[in-house]
Specification:
With 69 residues, this protein is an alpha+beta fold. It is 17% helix and 19% strand. The protein contains 2 helices and 2 strands, in the order βααβ. It is elongated and about 45 Å long. It starts with 18 loop residues before the first strand and ends with a strand.
């Protein structure tokens, strides 16, 4: 029997500590500045800005969880 846990409040904000896994694909600059790179399509995030997502991620992630970057 599977148990579904609602991960969002009615206003769609994530409930703290409920996510066991997250996949993050921020627009970072690693090898994305050439003719076909992402920089030609949208703004890229600096490493500092990506690292700045840590507090928000820690808030919504459960203990012993995974964040794939």
């Amino acid at each position: 029997m599977s148990i579904h846990i609602n991960h969002n409040l009615p206003d769609k904000t994530p409930l703290p500590g409920t996510f066991r896994a997250a996949l993050c694909d921020p627009p970072w600059s690693l090898q994305q500045k050439g003719d076909l790179g992402a920089a030609n399509h949208y703004d890229l995030m600096t490493d500092e800005r990506i690292l700045g997502m840590g507090e928000a991620m820690q808030e919504i992630m459960a203990e012993n969880s995974f964040c794939f970057l």
